From TrEMBL:
InterPro entries: DUF58, vWFA_dom_sf
Domain of life: Bacteria
DUF58 domain location: 54-276
Pfam families: DUF58
Organism phylogeny: Bacteria, Pseudomonadati, Pseudomonadota, Gammaproteobacteria, Pseudomonadales
Record-given protein name: DUF58 domain-containing protein
Amino acid sequence: MVNTEALTHIALPDLIRLQADARALKLPSARPVRSRQAGLQRSPQRGRGMAFAEVRLYQPGDDIRSIDWRVTARRQAPHTKLYEEERERPVLLLCDLGPSLFFASTGAFKQVRCAQLASILAWLALWSGDQVGGIVFNGESLSVQRPARRKKSVLRLLDTLAEQQRTDSRELASIGASSQTRLDTALTEARRVAHTGSRIFVISDFLEISPDTGKLLGALARHNSVSALRVLDPLEEELPKTGRFAVAGPNGPVWFDAANPRFQQAWHAKVASHQRQLEDCFRTSGVIAASVSTGEDPATALKALLGPGGRIG
């Protein structure tokens, strides 16, 4: 039996249970090749670089470029440096729960899908040994949690995701004009919070991009790996051919006649214009983008999108 409430608003216990989906997404890696000298074998995992581990006596076969000449001179015997791959990195999740996400024509509301995607990615990052943080924003408030490698940190982020979802369409009427720039505000905050080399996911419907959005994304992507997960509803891409429909608005439901050719033409023109703006935004910023439908299971969608190292391909 489908929990209808969970289709419009997802609670903290349900977000916690998504850790099972995250564990299922962790594909087993190939058996690592042990080597006496770092750098000779290709690692099954991608890291940010090589971190110094220790210095030991030089052994036949070691790369002479790794010799530590200071230690060699001090101890009067050749010593070489050993390195290990850096795998831990901060993961920052920007989750949009604004007014436009309190909607769906099929599946679950966009705000539910955004919260689910953010939760699965948070658990996945934690199980991978990464630091997890997030910025959750909904038009009225913006909550910042700096990355940390603790389960308590993930639970606190999930609690924020549950709390900041909307539960009543009447709340939309209280949102002021400042909500039009909520995504840009979050991106600006992310530049302050993110450390160089962070993995950043921006989860939104991207309906309220501005001329500055691409610049802000590009500034983030300059020193970090940034992916955009766009949550959209099928109704946003294609209208039904016939029928009268109601869409929730800040002042109550708005009715439209899908059979009206002028309405269809205006709708498709608006959708095409926004799509061009969005594609240009992602292209100029160098951000990798993918879409998830409200009708899709988020774990299934992520399984198709996430590649080695958590990259979207």
